Amino acid sequence: MSERQVMTRDEFIEDLRKRLRENFAMEIETATPNELFVAIGQIVRASYADSWHRTRQRYLEHKQKQSYYFSIEFLPGRMLKSNLLSLGMLDMVRDTVEEFGFDFDDVLRVENDMALGNGGLGRLASCFLDCLASRELPGNGNGIRYDYGLFKQQFVDGYQVELPDAWLKSGNVWEVRRESESVNVHFGGNVYMKQMPDGSLKPVAENERILKAVPYDTGVVGYENDTVNTLRLWSVEIPASEEGKYRSIEERRMVEDLTAVLYPDDSNEQGRLTRLTQEYFFVSAGIQSIIRYYKKTKMPISRINEYIAIHINDTHPALCVPEMMRILLDEFDLSWEKAWGLTVSMMSYTNHTIMQEALEKWPVSMVKYHLPRMYQIIEEIDRRFVTNLQGLYPDDLIQRTRIIQGDQIHMANLSIIGSHSTNGVAKLHSDLLKSVVLHDFYVLYPERFNNKTNGITQRRWLQLSNEPLAGLLDETIGTSWRKEPTDLQMLMNYYDDDRLLELLADTKHKNKVRLAKYIKETCNIEVNPNAIFDVQIKRLHAYKRQLLNLLHIVKCYLDLKDDPNRNFVPRVWIFGAKAAPSYTYAKSIIKAINETATLINNDPDIGDKMKIVFLPNYNVSLAEIIIPAADVSEQISLATKEASGTSNMKLMANGAVTMATMDGANVEIRDYVGADNIYVFGLTEEEVYRYYEKGDYSAQAIYDQDPVVRRVLNAFVDGTIPNIQREGQEIFDSLLKYNDEFFLLKDFEPYCKVQEQVSQDYLDQTKWRKMSLTNTAKSGIFSADYTVMKYAEDIWQIAPVNLHKEKRN
Ligand SMILES: *Cc1c(COP(=O)(O)O)cnc(C)c1O
After folding, report:
1. What pLDDT, on a 0 to 100 scale, did the predictor assign at position 659?
2. Which residues carry this modification: N6-(pyridoxal phosphate)lysine (predicted)?
3. Residues 754, 757, 760, CA angle at the centre, nearest 5°?
């Protein structure tokens, strides 16, 4: 299919034989999937090594402006299959491996998910890197190489149990350790200003703690284009010069723990000091390595902003601002004004949440003590900010927007003040930033605000994960959609084509059978692939309202118990979600879902009509199995709370119909597919804000008035759902005693109503298939290819570099 075949079948077999012999003293015929994975991984890495090198050289020689995406999380998942796809080797390698009698999927499953992220934020960063390379854009990632990824989740008696994810235990074929590009990062000590012979003041540091940051680089392979960008992840070590200071194992362990674990929470700050230290560690290492690279271009420091763009993904890397200032001031001796101008022009920032508790703040005392030079610079940024605005703006506005307020440092404020662009991640979210959450800043810097609606890579989330659908699309509309996802809209030409609708339904059925098999193997639950597969997969959080889904399930159950012969369209509810280990309430909801599942799945009155499946250990690889099999996509967060969402986009591309509140990117999905191809319900943004203003929401009133709500809620405390004495009460109280923070009870009735509509519509298979087709057809616009192209143009000012053409010339 591809003219870019880098390797023939015979060459591949020869290479494979050689590597199996060298590494394992084995033949292909006697190898296991483990050895095959390692050997194939090496072959793949070797086959892009040249392009990787050439990409770097090309960027350097042509002084190409590059962007660096700083993110404390990356969530790429497995990489073998996606690299094979990008290199045009997937079909050849699969066929060859299967000729030798192996199941290719067994080989793929050997790879541990690279899970250095919690959820959407980290997955977005990984989609962006994939898309940057695939659009030939010079953009790289910068983050932390955690020894342990996000915890592995198991259920014991229905409770979440967290196990460590030692993903590096059997090695990582994709990474390259670059010892020679290590840098030192300084912590603590005292910094004082010393007068230089020329009269100027320079900071001098004493008694600092020095740690070595070692980069591990992973190639990010562009789709069929010879571009290979770099994801650089930093790991901590003790520098040789400091060895003598760490004598005991405990002391060494303390240091090494810095990059040991990912904080398993994407919405609350925790781990405090280690987290702050992690943030400075990867920021400082990343910026130093950028500066080292820039020196190689021999360009003057005064023009660095023409060659470097730095992106602050959420506030975790906000120290990029003072760290860049430190280097420009202390190492290049630039004036404050000059350094500030360059810094602001290089930096840009994405806001990912409007939830107050998720906006990062650090105690002044902590930053002062552990990062003294950072503190001095932040203090000066803050001082100048206030001075410059005094007299121009009301004092209360200045006080609300300054960086240091009382004894806290506001990282979002630092990010906005220190950058030239602040973007939200969906239209509604960006509008809320301007009108409510960051309104004060919008008054100060209207030109800095913009929207970049999130996206997903169709390569992983359609081409790779849903091969039956991808193949059918190729046969129907040609293959151009693989490079230009908006071409998926050609599918609309088949809206009335019964044969195609039938074929689409066949692919969905195939995927449902595959998922049913997986469910049987992992949970020992039999599910009927003819039932509606209703999917909610995302981090477990109160605002995402998995509980609303559960309330509806309980209602269906009680209705069926009352009248087992009532009409009911069989449905399988599928959940995937991890709760932060310290988030008790979220864990209680997991327990409640699991106990409800056990109750319903084993009730002979219910039989096949309802099945509840909570698949453990939700991660990228699990998402890849679930999403292609989904009929219904649950995107039911309270309006204003989900900044964008991206699982909504993945599910839509795979032909699931969305059950949507008007939140995040759901609004844009509704605009593209049209109101007839989505199920919208629930409070709107305006209604939610009205409740906040008036303070007149009363969950108790709803409970008192609505017998259905009463009956469903009582099931949590009256023993109807067994084994949840504590959790049931906690949930019950959250809704009534604590007045239902996320307005579930208000949205409950409309939710049940559209769910009933879903069931009726599903019976009309032609109607359903047309909705499903429309969702796939309109999903191309949510390709992160387009999102990163807009970042490239509007924010980073980086341009594509066509290495493929150059290579052929
Ligand atoms: C896409 C994705 C997410 C984000 O899901 P939302 O529903 O948008 O929060 C989280 N985790 C994984 C593994 C994903 O693939």
Report:
1. 98
2. 650
3. 160
